[in-house]
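Re: the request from the purification team.
They wanted to know what the chain is likely to look like in 3D before they choose a buffer screen. I agreed to run a prediction and write the result into the notebook, where they can find it.
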Amino acid sequence: MIKQLFIFNKRIILVLFVVVCHIHVDAQNDTLHSQHSKQDSIKVVVPKQGLANLKMLTPPEGFVVADKFNGYIHYQASAAIIMTMLENVSFIDIDKGMTNEFFQKNQLVFIEKKDMVSASGTKGLIYKFSFVLSGKEFIRYFVYAGDLNKTLWLAITYPRQYDALLDANILQCTQTITLNP
């Protein structure tokens, strides 16, 4: 299951990269054409993916630091919180790529989207989905929180059967997000 989560997350990062590059290129093309610039090339800021500092989040009770990925795991619930830091991109830009077409392509059933502000004042978005893998239904949260320069991306996954036990705890832990631990 962990390997499949990594493959899925690589696809998400690729989609985010393409969306952000497209947004930046379109915006710069419009600016260049309107100003009749004589520049031969367009500068595009490419998002960088890196490991997020685990201290940026206090996980729910029962989650421990994972040894196979950057984040936390709850062994009894088969739940994972994968943490990634995206540089040179805001959660607002990422949100533009979160379309029905994207959900369908990745076999995600959209449940809800919420705005969030953590206790430290970090703003972001929370998406909740369900999906089926090997005949078993799962819940997946994508949490994007940050500023104009960087976005903390949480990919939180657990079996749907634990939704009643984990949902409130997951939402509560997003209130602990801080970009500067």
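For the purification team: DSSP finds four helices and eight strands in the chain.
Please add any questions underneath this entry.
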